Structures are given as C-alpha cells and as structure tokens.
C-alpha cells in the first residue's frame, strides 16, 4: 500500500498503520480511507492492539487540498463533485469513507494514536477514532471542515463530544481553532503528552500493558464503556451482569478444556 501513502504491518497481537506521505504532511485521500477499511476488515483475529501514526513531523494535515475541488494529479475525484451525484450514491460513498475510521472502535481491539505535529480535519478525526491518544508537545489539533463550508463526516463528532462535552466540542469545531497539546491533555483529548524522543517507547509501554489482561476481559470491558453513555444506569448494570456471566463461562471452559 506504499503507493497509496500507507504502510500496514502485523506482528502477532500488534498491528501498525503508518500514514506515509510526509512530503504533504500525510494528507489523506479517499483511496487511503478505502485501504484503511480493507485492512480493518482483514485484520487477523489475534490482533489486540492497533497503533496509528504518521511518518515525519506531522500526524496528518487532513484531506489533501487538491481533492477538494477542480482537477488534480492524484487520479481521484474531487470532493465537491459528489454534490452533483444522486443522494443515495453520495450517502453510500461517505459511508464507505467512514468505514476506514470506524473499525478502530471495535471492541476486540484497543487502538492508539501516536500524534505529533499537525492533526487537522481528517487527521483529527483519525486520532479521535482511536481509543487512546499519546501526543508530543508540538501536537496541534483542528477541525477544519466547517471553515471549508463542510462538516466533519468521518466519525469524529461522537467521540469528540464524549471526550470533552457538547459545548466545548461545538466551539472547537465551529471556530476551527487550534488545540495545542497542553490544552488537549487538559480537556481529555490526549491521554498523555511526552517528549518526541519518548513517543515510540511510551506507545510500546502502553501497548504492552494492554496485552497483559486476557483478551476477552478487554473486549467485554471496552464494549461496556463504549455503550455506557447510551444506556440508563439500570441498563448498564444489566450489561455488566451479562458481560461478567459470559466471562465466567469462558474462563471456566478454558480451565476445563
């Protein structure tokens, strides 16, 4: 996938996704989103942690500006031409784009974004698609879509509201302002801020820690937390009971097997 600007690797329980277009600050294209979706679909069952990072000094500058309107040298359709298509076709295309991001929230994996430099628009949404974000002091987030007359449509709005609340999410999106690393940590967008030369080691330590518990326990716990905001307290209690019952049965079966 290097010709698309992506590198994928799988090493046992750890998979890596590297955006590899450093010459354009890892700007993204719809072809990259399709490749991301295919990788997620084909992910081996033994993978438990997915690490997403960018080659070079930036995580991702968002959608490649050459694809917003007019002719381009990338061989891909400009985004604004979608407005001339039938509604059903547009909705289907956007759903395809979204699938490149949404698989990172699946309960059976924990995803980590290693963010340095710019995380703009689609880059911000890719970081938000991940469960955890480890960032460097120079990391800068911005939701640029409204400034271009568009909306964030790659799945980033829900986790953003879940992380920082409606009011602050609205302010950040509608002003398209920069959120620097220190503020990202304060708001809860970043789990930890580390020096650039410690980014890889910190992500590895976090990945190793996530691989410690049994896979089923992590899967069930993530599913409980993902659904918590949409359940009543009593429904959440029931979901916890049901999850624990499944774990007890799986553990007992493993001991007797």
From TrEMBL:
Listed InterPro entries: ClpP/crotonase-like_dom_sf, Ech1-like, Enoyl-CoA_hyd/isom_CS, Enoyl-CoA_hydra/iso
This protein's name: Enoyl-CoA hydratase/isomerase family protein
Family affiliation: Belongs to the enoyl-CoA hydratase/isomerase family.
CDD domains, A to Z: crotonase-like
Source species of the chain: Kribbella hippodromi
């Amino acid at each position: 996938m290097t010709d698309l600007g992506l590198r994928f690797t799988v090493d046992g329980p750890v998979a890596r996704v590297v955006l590899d277009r450093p010459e354009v600050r890892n700007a993204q294209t719809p072809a990259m989103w399709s490749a991301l979706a295919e990788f997620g679909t084909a992910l081996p069952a033994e993978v438990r942690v997915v690490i997403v990072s960018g080659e070079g000094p930036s995580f991702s500058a968002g959608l490649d500006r050459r694809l917003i309107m007019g002719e381009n040298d990338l061989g891909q359709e400009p985004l604004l031409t979608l407005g001339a298509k039938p509604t059903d076709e547009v909705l289907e295309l956007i759903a395809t784009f979204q699938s490149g991001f949404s698989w990172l929230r699946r309960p059976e994996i924990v995803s980590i974004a290693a963010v340095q430099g710019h995380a703009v628009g689609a880059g911000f949404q890719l970081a938000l698609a991940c469960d955890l974000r480890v960032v460097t002091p120079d990391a800068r987030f911005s939701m640029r879509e409204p400034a271009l007359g568009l909306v964030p449509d790659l799945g980033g709005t829900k986790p953003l509201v879940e992380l920082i609340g409606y009011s602050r999410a609205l302010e950040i999106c509608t002003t398209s302002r920069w959120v620097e690393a220190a503020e990202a940590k304060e708001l809860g967008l970043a789990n930890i801020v580390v020096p650039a030369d410690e980014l890889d080691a910190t992500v590895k330590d976090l990945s190793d820690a996530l691989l410690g518990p049994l896979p089923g326990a992590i899967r069930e716990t993530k599913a409980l937390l993902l659904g918590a905001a949409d359940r009543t307290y009593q429904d959440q209690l029931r979901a916890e009971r049901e999850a624990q019952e499944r774990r007890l049965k799986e553990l007992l079966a493993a001991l007797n097997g």
